[in-house]
Amino acid sequence: MPFAPVPQAFKSSLKEVVIGAGESAVALGGENVLPLYSFDAPIKNRPKVGIEISDLGPDRSLPELAKFYEGASSAAELAARACAAPGADFVCLWLEGADPNGEDRDVADCVKICREVAEASPLPLAVQGCGSPDKDARLFEKIAEALQGRNVLLLSAKEENYKGIAVAAVTAYGQKIAAESSVDINLAKQLNVLISQLGIAGDSTVMHLGASAAGYGFEYIASTTDRVRLAALAQNDAALQMPVIAPVAADAWSVKESVMSEDEFPEWGPVERRGADMEICTASAMIAAGANAVIVRHPRSAAAVAELISALL
Amino acid sequence: MALKGLDIFKLTPKTNCKDCGVPTCMAFAMKVAQGSVQIGACPHMSDEALAALGEATAPPMKLVKIGAGEREYALGGETVLFRHEKAFVSKNLFGVALKPDSAERVLPEVMKIDYERIGERMHVELLHVGYGGSGNGDMAGSGNGDMADGGSGDRAAFLDTVRKAAAAGRTLVIECGDAGVAREALELAKDGKPLLNGANPSNYAEMARLAEEYGVALGVGAPDIGGIYDTVQALEGLGCKNLVIDVGAASAKEAFANAVQIRRAAIKDSVRSLGYPSLVNLEKLAPGNPELQLALASVFVLKYGSIIIMGDMSYAQALPLFGLRQNIFTDPQKPMTVEPGVYPINGADESAICATTVNFALTYFIISGELQRSGVPVNLLISDAGGYSVLTAWAAGKLSAASLEKFFSEQGLNDRLKNRTLLIPGKVAVLKGEIEESLPGWNIVVAPNEAVGIVKFMKELSA
Amino acid sequence: MGRFIVIGERIHCISPAIRAAMEARDPEPILRRAREQLDAGAVYLDVNIGPAAKNGEDLMKWAVRLIQENCDNVPLCLDTANAAAIEAGISVYDRSRGKPIVNSANAGDRKSNVDLAARNDAIAIALCSKDGVPANNDERQEYCQELLEHGLALGMEAEDLWFDPLCLVIKGMQEKQLEMLEFIRQLNDMGLSSVCGISNISNGMPKAVRPIIDSTELAMAIECGLKAAILNPCERRMMETVKAADIILNNTLYADSFLDI
User: Fold this and answer.
1) Structural domains in chain A?
2) Which element (helix H / strand E) includes B7?
C-alpha cells in the first residue's frame, strides 16, 4: 500500500497577539500545528524577527555593527536604522541604561527615549526593561501611558511585578506584555493564570520562557518550549496557548564564544562573526522549538533568520 | 513497543472456543497484553496474524551503523519524538561536502575544528563526496549544475576527491547513483565503511547489491515521500535493511517536511519502512549560503536530521552547532557535569585567587564565562557536587565544608596552589564559617548571589 | 492520555425542578444548571429527559438546541430510554466541540443503541451487562467483547465505545468493588475507554459521607485508567479530586492555581 502522510493538525490553536498599529502591525501565533509544521495545516503567521537596540548604543568595537549604525547616535536614529535592516519585522528597544546597578537612567528620561524611538520607527516596537523588577514596573507604567495607541510589547512582567505592569500596561493603556519565567514550565503556566485572573485576555500576553545560548543549557529551554506547545495544542491548555517570544540577543552575545578576543583564540576567527553565528544558531533553534518571535542584535542574524523562515514556510 | 490488547484481540479468531484455557478471546487478548500468557497459547492464530504481531513489536526505528573502528557511529534507534519523554539515542553527525575544485581549501579548515567540550570530542565526523547528476538530490529535482553531466573528467576528479577524503581520517559519505563509478569509489574507501548514498527508484537493485557486497549502509532517496517509502520497501524486499533515508533536495521546506513526517510516521504511527535515520544535505538546499546553512543545521539538530551535511563549516559555526547538539542529545534525567578539578582562567597560575562552584555543567559554563569576562586570572575549583545547581547541591549535602575538605585533600590543593583566598558562591554564604574551619589557612570570601554580579565583583576585588 | 472527562449529571428529570422545566419548556432552570456545571469544570453535560415515551423527540431536540445555543455548543450526552428521542436530538446537534454520546447501550435489549451510535457517528456508552448487574469480570468481558465486535462490525472506531463496568453499591456489594476496579484496568490495558456513574456506589449512605466515598473511589478508578465519569461537578470535593488526579497523571501541567482553572 502506498504511503501518504496524514496531516496532524490539532483542534486547539495558539492565541494570536498583535503588536504595533496600522500597516506595519505584526501578528504572532494563531497556528494549530507544531512549530514550522506547515505540512499539517497552513501556519497563519510566520515567526517574526525583532532587532534589538540599546539606549546605550551598539558595541562599536564590532566593525560590521559599527558600520551598520555609522552616524546614528541617538536611540531614535539607531531605531530608524534597525528598522531598515533586511528581515526585521519589529524593533526592540532595550533600556539597558535604566539599570539601577548601572547608569540608573531615570524614568522620565527613559519615557522620552521611548517616545522618540516610537516616532522614528516605522515598525512595531517592543520595549525591554532593565531586568530590575521594581524599576521595570515603574518604567512600564509610564511608557505604556506615553505610547498609548502604539500597541507596544513590554518585556517583561515577572512573578514579582506582573500585577502592576499588567494592570497599568494592558488594562489601562491597551499595550501588550510578555510574561517572563525562567525555564520553569509550572511557573510559566501559573503566571499566565495569574495574569488572566486580572481580567487580561490571552491575546494580550506573550510568553518569554527564558533564554539560553546554544551550548549553555539550551536543552532546558528547548524541552520547556516543546512541552508548552504540546500542552497548548494536544491538551488544549488555555493557560499555555499564548505565543512565545525568545529574546536571544543578550545570551547569545555574552557567552565565551561570542566575547573572547581573537588574540586569545586565533583559530576561532573574528569575534563578530562568532557572535552572529551564535545568535543565528540560537535563534533558529528557538524557532524550531516553538518561538513565534525572536529578538536578535546583529543585522546579519536578522537577515539569516528571516531567510530561514522564508525557506521553511 | 507494547501492544494494546485491542490490537491483539482484532487478530484473534473471536470464537470464544476456550482452547487457550481462557473463557473469551477478549480475556485472552488482555492476558497477552499483560504478558501473563504467550500468544502461542491460542492454537487458532493465523500465520498472517502472528507475522503482524511480530512486526508490531519490532522497534520503531532501526539503529544503523556507518564507519569503522574508532570512527564507527550509530544512527537512529530512536523511540520518542521529544527529548523530554526520554533521551534521544543517537546524536546527529555533521559532515562537510568536499568538491573537487574546493577540497584543497576546505579540508584543512574542517580538520582544524577538533576540540573537547564537557568530555566530548567536537569535530566534523563525516566528509561527503558527491558524483555527477545521478544522486538523490537530482532525483528530487535540484542538481548541482556544475556536476550535472558526469563526464569522464568529473569521474576522475570525483575519485581523486574520494581518495583525498579517505586519507583525511574521517568517515565518508559517498554519493553516487552510478553503480559502476560507485564501485570504484568504494574500492578506494571500503576500509572505512563509508555510507553509500544514491539509491533511487531506478537504480536501487544495483545499489543494494553494491552495498551488500561492500558491507556498507545505503542511502536512499526519491522525488517525494511516497517514492521514498516505495523504494525503501523495494529494498527491504531485497533484504537490504541497512538504510539511511535522504530527505531530498527539492527545497528546504520539503526536506524539513520529509524529515519530520518520516520520523513521526516511524515513531508515532509505527510505519516500519520509514524507521531509518535521515540524511539532509544543506549544500544542496542552500548552495553557497553559509548563514542559511547554519540556520537550517540548527533546525535539523532539533528536528530529526541524523546526518547533516554542510557545504563548509567554519570554526565560528562549529562552536554553536556542536554546543547545541551536545545540549539536545543529553539525557533529560541526567544533568551534564564537568570533571572535578582545577580550571585556570585568564592564564591563572598557582598564585592566582581561587573560586569554587559545583560540577553542574550549566553552572560551570556560566561562572567560567563571567570569570573570563572579568579578565582577572583565577583558578576555578570544581568539586563533585552530584551534578546539581548550587542551592540544590547544598540542600542535598553534596556541597559542604566536608565535601570541599575532601576535594582539597584528594586534589592536593594545599600544595598545588599558593594563593589562599577562596571565593564561594553567594548562595551558600552560610557555609563560610564551616569552610574556614575545615580549610585552615584559607581566607573565605563570599562572591555575589547571581552570576551577573561576578565581573564587577572580580574587578573590584583585584583593584 | 487526555484529561479526565467529567460528564455533568445535573440536568436530570429526576430533579423536580428540571422535570417541571422540561414539561413547561422553561429554559432558565436548565440553563442555570448547565452553566453551573460548566463553570465547575464539566466537559460534557448529560441530558436526561426520563423515559419520555411521549413527545420525547421534540423534547430532546428542544433541550439540545437550548443548551448548545446558550453554552457555546457544549458537547452533550443524550440520556433516555427512548432511542428515537436520542436520534432526534442528534439530528439538531452541533458537533464542533465533540461528538454526541448515546447513553446508553448494553448487550441486551439496548444493543441496538450501538447501531444508533454507529449510523450517527456518535459515541456510545456500552454497559458491560445484559440485564441487571454482571456477576463477575468474566461476564463483563463477555458482554464487552460482544458489544465491541458488534460496533467494529458496524464500522465504529473502538475509541467511540466507552465501556461502563457498572459501579455497584457499596452497601450490599462491598466485596465487589476491587473486581470492578480491576476490570477498568483490564479495559485500559486493552486500549479501550471506560466510563461510569460514580455516585451509584454511595447510594443509601449519609449525605455527608457520600462525597468522601465517591471521590476516593473516583481517584482509585482514574488510577486504573477510567477515562470519564458521570458525576455532579458542583460537588467541590469531586472536582478537586479530578483536578488533582489530572496533575498526578501528568494530563495537564501543574500550576499553583490549578484548582481555579
Assistant:
1) 16-312 (3.20.20.20)
2) helix B5-11
Most A CBs within 10 A among C253, C257, C258, C259, hence the mutation to make, goes to C253
Tell me if B7 and C191 make a contact (CB, 8 A cut-off).
Answer: yes
Model ipTM over 0.90: yes
Give the domains, in start order, of chain C with CATH numbers. Answer: 5-260 (3.20.20.20)
Report which of B200, B275, B260, B259 is spatially closest to residue B1, judged by C-alpha positions: B275
Residue to mutate among B327, B368, B370, B454, with most A CBs inside 10 A, is B327
* Pair B171, B292 in one domain: yes
CATH of the domain at B224: 3.20.20.20
Task: Tell me the C-alpha distance between C218 and C238, whole Å.
Answer: 8
Partner residue opposite A239 with nearest CB, options C2, C251, C261? C261
> Chain B partners of C250 at a C-beta cutoff of 8 Å?
none
pTM of the model: 0.86
B313 with B293, same domain: the answer is yes
Whether the CB of A102 is below 8 Å from some CB of chain B: the reply is no
Nearest CA of chain C to the CA of A193: how many Å? 7
- B234 shares its domain with B216: yes
Give chain A positions within 8 Å (CB) of C260: 193, 197
Provide long-range contacts, Cβ within 8 A and 24+ apart, for B75-79. B75/B244, B75/B277, B75/B306, B75/B307, B76/B275, B76/B276, B76/B277, B76/B306, B78/B263, B78/B266, B78/B267, B79/B267
Instruction: Please give chain B's pLDDT, 463 residues, in tens.
Output: 457 788 888 888 888 898 998 888 988 888 887 778 888 888 898 888 887 777 777 789 999 999 999 999 999 999 999 999 999 999 999 999 999 999 999 999 999 999 999 889 999 999 999 997 544 444 433 333 344 444 566 999 999 999 999 999 999 999 999 999 999 999 999 999 999 999 999 999 999 999 999 999 999 999 999 999 999 999 999 999 999 999 999 999 999 999 999 999 999 998 999 999 999 999 999 999 999 999 999 999 999 999 999 999 999 999 999 999 999 999 887 777 888 999 999 989 999 999 999 999 888 888 988 898 888 999 999 999 988 889 888 988 889 999 999 999 999 999 999 999 999 999 999 999 999 999 999 999 999 998 888 999 999 988 8
How distant is the Cα of C250 from the closest Cα of chain B, in angstroms? 12
**A189/C253 touch (CB, cutoff 8 Å), yes or no:** yes
Domain coverage including residue B20:
5-56
Residues B303 and B405 in one domain: no
**Inter-chain CB pairs, B–C, below 8 Å:** 45
Chain A positions touching C253 (Cβ under 8 A) are 185-186, 189, 227, 231, 235, 237, 240
Closest chain A residue to the Cα of C96, Cα to Cα: A11
Contacting residues of B for C186, CB less than 8 Å apart: 5, 30
Q: Which residues contact B48 (CB under 8 A, 6 or more apart)?
A: none
Boundary (domain end) residue, out of B265, B294, B328: B328
Q: Quote the Cα angle for A15-A19-A23, to 5°.
A: 115
Residue B335 lies in a domain: no
What is the spatial distance between Cα A304 and Cα B290, in angstroms, rounded to a whole number?
A: 9
Sequence-ordered list of residues with C-beta below 8 angstroms from that of A19, at least 6 positions apart, any chain: A25, A26, A28, A90, A124, A125, A126, A151, A152, A153, A176
C104: cis peptide before it, omega within 30°?
yes
B317 plus B408 within the same structural domain? no
Nearest chain B Cα distance for residue A170, angstroms? 30
| Boundary residue ending a domain (B307, B328, B349) | B328
Residues B209 and B239 reside in one and the same domain: yes
Same domain as B301, residue B357: no
Distance from C-alpha of B174 to C-alpha of B136, rounded to nearest angstrom: 12
CB of A190 less than 8 A from some CB of C: yes
Q: Do B240 and B271 fall into the same domain?
A: yes
Q: How many domains does chain B have?
A: 3
